[in-house]
DNA sequence: ACATTGACCTGGGAGC
DNA sequence: TGCTCCCAGGTCAATG
């Protein structure tokens, strides 16, 4: 579920419920996520007020006066605001309970997600410090993409999914952006032209912006117990459409593997 | 510095 | 129904 738009949606969805709210309990039901969930989080967070909820790449940052909780949703994680007495699922590994009787509950069946703690500036954390620009930030420009891609032999698709280049472009939106930009995902990153860099940066920004807007719809029923989206599915032009007609030229959409990830494109529209 | 591969997990669907 | 196999929205660490 979590591509960048989903994480952004989660961020916007939970912020109003937990900002300025006081933590009463922290419950770790399963420490075995991608990295062990730190012990003694309860001691660190009890009576702390969540000052703000922010996002960097696909990391959510819960900022308090004592430090910052860094949460990553991995492949299958989701965060919901629930009443404390809501039934606990076997994949509900972690939760923060608040004074108002609600909690922030992390469900993550595959346990690729992470819950980390830092007392320092979270942006200086080992996992965040080397990240590239946010895709919707002014710093993510065609010039930057073009310059960084010179002499790179990797495919343009793997290149834009590299978080050192730009964050937040996941597997779905990489394919979608390349379709919109008319670029073959197999093309060597070092071979894209300046014009293509321009098209691609515009495409990434456009797709992610549109997807975040769609996420706004999910926000509404965020408090309900079903936290399952699927709101952007209807907008996808190539992802998961192998064999279907290209919406531009009617050729069959192809599926290939690049860097062990499924990749979808139109061999007629994308050169 | 870059490219490639394996690793971490569970659940769902396809095929038999 | 049930088994096996394959695939999945992420990304770090190890290796060459």
Explain this structure.
This protein is an alpha+beta fold and 271 residues long. The chain has two domains: 4-124, N-terminal domain of MutM-like DNA repair proteins; 142-265, Helicase, Ruva Protein, domain 3. Helices cover 26% and strands 20% of the residues. It contains six helices and ten strands. The strands form three sheets. Strands 1-6-7-5 form a four-stranded antiparallel sheet. It has a four-stranded antiparallel sheet with strand order 2-3-4-8, with helices on one face. Strand 9 and strand 10 (261-265) form a beta hairpin. Helix 1 (4-18) packs across helix 6 (194-220), helix 3 (142-149) packs across helix 6 (194-220) and helix 5 (171-181) crosses helix 6. It is elongated. Mean pLDDT is 93; it is low at 216-226. It binds a DNA duplex (16 and 16 nucleotides) through helix 5.
Residue fraction in strands: 15-25%
Note poorly predicted spans: 216-226
Helical segment tally? Answer: 6
**Radius of gyration over alpha carbons?**
20 Å
Distance between the termini: 29 Å
Biggest sheet architecture: 4 strands, antiparallel
Whole-number total of structural domains? 2
Instruction: Tell me the series of helices and strands, N- to C-terminal.
Output: HEHEEEEEEEHHHHEE
Mean pLDDT: 93
The helical percent reads 25-40%
CATH classification class of the largest domain: Mainly Alpha
Here the CATH topology of the largest domain equals Helicase, Ruva Protein, domain 3
Spatial ordering of strands, largest sheet: 1-6-7-5
- The number of E-state strands comes to 10
What structural category do the secondary elements indicate?
alpha+beta
CATH second-level architecture of the largest domain: Orthogonal Bundle
């Amino acid at each position: 579920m979590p591509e960048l738009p989903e994480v952004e949606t989660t961020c916007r969805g939970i912020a109003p419920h937990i900002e300025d709210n006081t933590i009463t309990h922290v419950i770790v039901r399963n420490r075995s996520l991608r990295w062990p969930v730190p012990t003694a989080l309860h001691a660190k967070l009890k009576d702390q007020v969540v000052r703000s909820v922010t996002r960097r790449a696909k990391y959510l940052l819960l900022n308090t006066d004592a430090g910052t909780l860094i949460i990553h949703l991995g492949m299958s994680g989701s965060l919901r605001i629930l009443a404390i007495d809501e039934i606990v699922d076997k994949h509900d590994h972690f939760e923060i309970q608040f004074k108002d009787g609600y909690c922030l509950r992390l469900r993550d069946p595959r346990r690729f997600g992470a819950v980390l703690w830092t007392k320092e500036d979270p942006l200086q954390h080992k996992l965040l410090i080397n990240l590239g620009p946010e895709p919707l930030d002014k710093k993510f420009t065609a010039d930057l993409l073009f310059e960084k891609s010179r002499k790179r032999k990797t495919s343009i698709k793997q290149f834009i999914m590299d978080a050192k280049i730009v964050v937040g472009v996941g597997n779905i939106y990489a394919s979608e952006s390349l379709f919109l930009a008319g670029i073959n995902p197999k093309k060597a990153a070092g071979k894209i032209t300046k014009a293509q860099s321009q098209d691609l940066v515009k495409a990434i920004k456009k797709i992610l912006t549109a997807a975040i807007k769609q996420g706004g719809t999910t926000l509404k029923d965020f408090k309900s117990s079903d936290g399952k989206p699927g709101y952007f599915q209807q907008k996808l032009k190539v992802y998961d459409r192998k064999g279907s007609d290209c919406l531009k030229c009617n050729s069959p959409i192809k599926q290939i593997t690049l860097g062990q990830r499924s990749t979808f494109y139109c061999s007629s529209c994308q050169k």
